[in-house]
Design brief:
elongated, about 20% strand, 3 strands, 2 helices, about 90 residues, alpha+beta
Length: about 90
């Protein structure tokens, strides 16, 4: 099972700065993985995802726990941009 979301970055964000920001988030926030995606004619996006393993079945406690923690981890990542370099 895959849980994901994204946040669009500001227009003037440089790719290298965005990657450094995402790598910092990966080092400091445990649950999801952060990466940068880009489509032509669009701003960079901070892509956040988490894979919940299901090969041995699905435990409802794990689903509920992950569903509670994922948004908090995503928000914590956005709040790391404390001077609004990447997001409004």
């Amino acid at each position: 099972m895959k849980i994901f979301t994204y946040a669009e970055m500001l227009d003037d964000v440089e790719f290298e700065d965005a990657v450094v920001f995402a790598n910092d988030l990966n080092q400091s926030i445990m649950l999801p993985a952060f990466s940068i995606i880009h489509s032509p004619n669009e701003n960079f996006r901070l892509w956040v995802h988490y894979f919940l393993p299901t090969q041995f079945g699905v435990d409802s406690k794990n689903i509920v726990s992950t569903d509670r923690r994922f948004p908090g981890a995503f928000r914590a990542g956005l709040l790391k941009d404390d001077v609004n370099l990447f997001f409004e």
